[in-house]
Amino acid sequence: MAVTTQVSEHIKEVQSVIDGSQTSRDEVIAASWTRCIDDYHLDPVVLQEAYIVPHTQLKEHRERLDKLIRTAKYGLDALFHQVADHGYVLMLTDAEGVTVDYQGDASLTWELKKAGLYLGAEWSEARAGTCGVGSCIYTGEALTVHQSDHFDATHSPLSCTAAPIYDVDGSLAAVLDISALHSPEPKASQALTLQLVTSCTRRIEMAALMNTFRKEWIIRLSQSPAFLDVDPECAMAVDAEGRVIGMTHSTQRLLSRIKGNNWRQPHALLGSLLSDFFNLDINELPALSRALPTEERLLATVHGDLWFAHAIAPQPSSIRRRKKVVSGSLASLYGDDAKMADLAIKATTLSMSDLPLLLNGETGTGKEFLAKAIHESSSRKSGPFIAINCAAIPESLIESELFGYADGAFTGARSKGKRGLIEQANNGTLFLDEIGDMPLSLQVRLLRVLAERELLPVGATKAIPVSFRVLAATHKSLPERVKNGSFREDLFYRINGATLTIPSLRERSDILWLAETLITKLVDRTVCVSAPAGHILERYDWPGNIRELENMLQFALAFCEGNELLPEHLPEQLLNPKRLTSRETESTGGTLEVLEACDWNISKAAKVLGVDRSTVHRRIKKAGIKRRYDTD
């Protein structure tokens, strides 16, 4: 190849920089030139054309990167569409610098292939000298090698901008390069190209992380709430124990800064607890879901720096495999009932966050007991638990009861004013029972408190800052009330960060456990439920739920003088055939059980079964059961 004057000048400059002369080149370029001489033993005088690997080798390189190529395809197509009209070629190389994917102008195929801007071209520093791909691989940084920045003068007409793509474990996976055969002389002309390629690689890493860890928690971070859900800067995956198991490169750098490590050592980060970097643990992740407005999902590093965060929950199959841990307070609410166990698991997970919860359930199912258990399992357990029945306070008093009032706010007010129930809940939990019955005028004021975290007592001029966790409960359908205009939609979304539905008593399989638990609280002596009485309790459909069960037991205990609760101690209404659950059966076995429970009183058994006496006799005869006695 003939050496032109321009090439000769370039060779002289390379040699002078190697000899230690001052240069206007970027430091990264000068360092690469030195490596080319000292490490790779390249000679700037020996000009070499681009090297393209044989087809069989290219196939192996492509197969190793097949998953990433498929993941990146959409992003690469979109990027090429942006730059194609400006004469750029797009190349994706592996970590060895071999081009495994390529997009360029088909009419320039010969020129591009000759220049090495083509599928199969190897752009490692050891092979091609200082170049966009090779220098990016060595430094791990996005950079531009523009025209005469190239070590080999053969490539000096080119302008190459490259950015690394890191795998989810922090290792270098690939390099994305945008190159042009011809470009303006100033290197600054490639600044926009550098931004485009780095933005694309960040999105590719994000997509790879999301695809790899679909069944684990993923946390996405942004310093701008507006971009959190559309183009976050960082993302990481954590397992069920709260340990970091995957990350994008920007997250790798962030965590390394927090820990004071070199970002080139990802193994020092993987396996670390989330709480090593942020004031957060795995149980608090639900608080960072989209249930809350973006600007309220703030996450602080252990050094106090704030990020906006979005936590994406694992797929259900992963949740089922996780260790099911229930806090002590929540475990005391049920026996061996599967529905209550599932509820307790969810409540335990949600209890450690400040996410507002809506507790749904029929009247008497124990919504306040659940709310207290969640409070006692939370990080606010040392604070107060303030319960407010929104349906029980007269509308004329509810505003002053909730918000309090200032000194002399109205006639009859206390001289020193009064702290409202909301202020009393500061640093604890505020439980709003029957919130569906709250007047619309009060809903507006409550919404403002929840949004601004401060309240203004009646007659006061200065707001009071408050911090509390909100738990709300209702037996009504709030979506229906929103639809008919009796409940504010914005307030509904403020209190409904997550919904927990309490099963009715007739749906539960632990009625006897619950009955005996209540008995221990109602009397000081030991009283057990006999099998016949237990059978009756299990067959009733409990329209009043736990509250009705407690009332029934108080009635029965008043007549029970011994240590065993018998059928005759129970209220007559428990034998009402219209109130039997779906567990009622017409089988012979079922009839026999009822006869035993009713001590073979045919009339009583017929009433329990909801049939007439002749039907009971017919079933006895059909089954060949020997009747012990028959009393009317």
Automatic annotation (TrEMBL):
Nucleotide-binding as UniProt keyword: yes
Gene3D superfamilies referenced in this protein's UniProt entry, alphabetically: 1.10.8.60, 3.30.450.40, Homeodomain-like (1.10.10.60), P-loop containing nucleotide triphosphate hydrolases (3.40.50.300)
Domain Sigma-54 factor interaction: 333-558
One term of GO molecular function: ATP binding
One BP annotation, GO: regulation of DNA-templated transcription
Record's keyword terms, sorted: ATP-binding, DNA-binding, Nucleotide-binding, Transcription, Transcription regulation
The protein's name in its UniProt record: Sigma-54-dependent Fis family transcriptional regulator
